[in-house]
């Protein structure tokens, strides 16, 4: 008899103010076997979602109106210590990376390296 290992599906919350980018990213992640728990356009919406749901990973853009990604990450980390936080941003400066690390963000990927880096980083976060 063959036994098949059942892999747990990783639920991801996407937080980016660009609906087009969220749609593209959602397609990419679904293709990699991830489940999109929700796709929201602001930090405020992310916090509202997290009040009732608990995804495994939250992917955040930094530059968003209202609460930016770093502020949102800080609030999420205070509420949900076990959720994995990943910043996905156009900003590649060391200052942003250091600020994210100080908050407790688990990974930082530049959007310019999305396709090669994101699958590897998500596999590490969900291991």
UniProtKB/TrEMBL annotation:
InterPro entries: Bact_response_regulator (IPR050595), CheY-like_superfamily (IPR011006), NreC/VraR/RcsB-like_REC (IPR058245), Sig_transdc_resp-reg_receiver (IPR001789). Residues 11-126 form the Response regulatory domain. Signal peptide: none annotated. It holds the Pfam family Response_reg. It comes from the Bacteria. Transmembrane segments: none annotated. Keywords: Phosphoprotein. The modification 4-aspartylphosphate is found at residue 61. This is Response regulator. It comes from Candidatus Accumulibacter phosphatis.
């Amino acid at each position: 008899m063959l036994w098949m290992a059942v892999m747990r599906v990783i639920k991801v919350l996407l937080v980016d103010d660009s609906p087009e980018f969220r749609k593209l990213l959602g397609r990419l992640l679904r293709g990699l076997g991830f489940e999109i728990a929700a796709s929201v356009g602001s930090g405020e919406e992310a916090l509202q979602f997290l009040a009732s749901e608990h995804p495994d990973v939250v992917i955040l853009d930094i530059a968003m109106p209202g609460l930016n990604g770093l502020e949102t990450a800080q609030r999420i980390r205070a509420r949900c210590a076990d959720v994995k936080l990943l910043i996905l941003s156009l900003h590649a400066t060391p200052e942003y990376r250091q600020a994210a690390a100080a908050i407790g963000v688990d990974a930082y990927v530049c959007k310019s390296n999305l396709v090669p880096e994101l699958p590897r980083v998500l596999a590490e976060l969900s291991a």
